[in-house]
Amino acid sequence: MKRRDLLKGGAVAAVAAGASTLTAPAIAQQRIEITIVSTWPRDFPGLGTGAQRFAQRLSDMSDGRFEISYFAAGERVGAFDSFDEVASGNAQIYHAADYYWKGKHPAWAYFTSVPFGLTYTEINAWIRFGGGQALWDELAADSDLKNLMCGNTGVQMGGWFRKEMNSADDFKGLKMRIPGLGGDVLSKLGASPVSLPGGQIYENLISGAIDATEWVGPWNDAAMKFYEAAKYYYYPGMHEPGAMLAAGINKDFWEGLSTADKAIIEAAASMENDVMMAEYNAKNGASLTKLINEQGVQLRKFSDDIYDSFGQAAAEVFAETVEHSDLARRVHDSFVQARAEVGGWTKISDQEYLRQRNRVLGV
């Protein structure tokens, strides 16, 4: 071997050795530990599996640099303790429905769903292009959080009842599990709304501690076996026409991330927002058929009179909500504008098309 080649080979080896000593620590420094807590039971269809899918996607999209520790409700903290766990920095992300935090500020309800609110497509438009995200950021910043859309369950059912609901008077004295501003609406009608995490609803319904419950829709509700305690299944729900779920991220943690890592989290959350809604739409119809044909569930539609009562009560709730603060009023006003503008378009696009399609097909 020539001396020149020997020297060249030695130089290459030296560079390679230097690179190996630098690469390992650099990679180690890039690893980011992320603890995720959720408000859902482990492996619960849609909500729980969607949160777990989001967690796995964060790991996959970062090629393992994000080291994820996922905890379902009750495994690290209670379901409703997830907010404080992340706001304090003890965990980095929660997956939840933000209307659970309306006791902290009523504006949180708008970033899940409110009575007579926005559907899935409408709330996406509001958050992304109607000023919703900026208002959400302002609200969340007060609790050291940054929040992103991370799932949706679509238009929800009105709930499970032990008796037929023929008029607004039937809600008087009713103990019903229903969170958010929807619970406040029923309170105006004389009901006693109860907020319970998903894992505690069945036992309370079976025991008689509550008389009725809403949850999500046929796919989830069938898994919860509510039909064992209540046979009357009402639709449509006025309280959650497009329940958006959230990834709530500790703001200090978020601001310490690189632009690329923020983009990974945003992309994973956005993908779950799409995938979860598709899964609910794919599975709700077949699940409803089974509930009716195999479990003897009685499907009922709320009357127009009952819905009118819901509307009057909702107007009272909103009037009280906007008096809370300037931020609550600005969030509500922005939501109302989106409902008018986006909803006005869907009325002549989606709704009219579906009406004509169903008429032609005899559906």
Structure description:
The structure is a single chain. By secondary structure, the protein is α/β, with parallel strands linked by helices. The protein has 3 domains: 1-28; 29-151 and 242-281, Bacterial extracellular solute-binding protein, family 7 (D-Maltodextrin-Binding Protein, domain 2, 3-Layer(aba) Sandwich); 159-239 and 283-326, 3-Layer(aba) Sandwich (D-Maltodextrin-Binding Protein, domain 2), CATH 3.40.190. The chain is 52% helix and 14% strand. The protein has helices at 3-30, 47-61, 82-87, 120-129, 132-141, 180-188, 201-207, 218-224, 251-255, 259-295, 304-321, 326-361, and strands spanning 32-38, 66-71, 93-96, 145-152, 159-161, 175-177, 192-194, 212-213, 232-235, 244-250, 298-301. The strands form 2 sheets. A 6-stranded mixed β-sheet has the order 7-6-8-5-9-11. A 5-stranded mixed β-sheet has the order 2-1-3-10-4, sandwiched between helices. Strand 6 (175-177), helix 6 (180-188) and strand 7 form a beta-alpha-beta unit. The longest helix is centred in the last third of the chain and has 37 residues, at 259-295. It starts with a helix and ends with a helix.
